[in-house]
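Chapter review. Work through the record for HTH-type transcriptional regulator before attempting the end-of-chapter questions.
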Amino acid sequence: MDGGLIRLKEVLTGLKPSERKVAEYILAQPEQVVQLSVHKLAELSGVSEATVIRLTRSLSMGGYQELKLRIAGDLTKKSLSDSYQEIRMGDTVESIITAVSNNNQKSIHDTISLLSAEEVKRAAEVMSTARKIDIYGVGASAVSAYDLKQKLSRINWWCEVYCDFHAQLTSAVNLAEGDVAFGISYSGETEDIIQSLTEAKRQGATLISLTKFGKSPVSDCADIRLFTSSVEQNIRSGAMASRIAQLNVIDVLFVTIVSQLHEEIIPRLEKTRLAVSRTKRV
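Structure tokens for HTH-type transcriptional regulator:
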């Protein structure tokens, strides 16, 4: 069990002042915190015990003990580079290869600590019984949306991608109970996605979101929440690393679907594989 420190970093800027105070204390000296009681941590960071407990809820954890266990797990792990690497104009090709690859790897590595296995399972189950799956994404998230559609199309599920707001809204109003609307937004604040999901929910559809970790308008309106790590804002390659993390989550979700329904789905995958293989020269 790990991911305590990365969760704290992810939500830090959005925390209330009192919660941020204890979060900053934990990040400054995690080795000490794993030895502290909730009472002692509250005393040392200058907040109430209730504030510490509220912080654990903001981190989607069951309590202070889980937070300590996750921090302890972080401390025992050898991780990749501690931070995302800035890419500067004029860098050598060798430096760019290293920086971009490190950022992509770190984005996936951090996402592993944030992704809930239970939420992935719920998403797979809901999607497997849906009449129709709408997928909404704009900008860089549209790439991830099309990747999900391509995968679901291979197993003959009815899914459509909408990257234009009017098209999203037009489809959303025609959804019904039993349908799924899957909104992808790295920031979780894309207005088109918020309004489209809100309309889909009004029609009775189940909502799945894929956003960076933490509270956001998109994740708040979703029934099932999938998260990726966030990339520091000063990273020019942020859109690349976040897209890689999204694609990784989509791969995880798709393989979960295949694993749960393998007897039904494997023949469909083989059928599409053979069809495509005939278009290639030997």
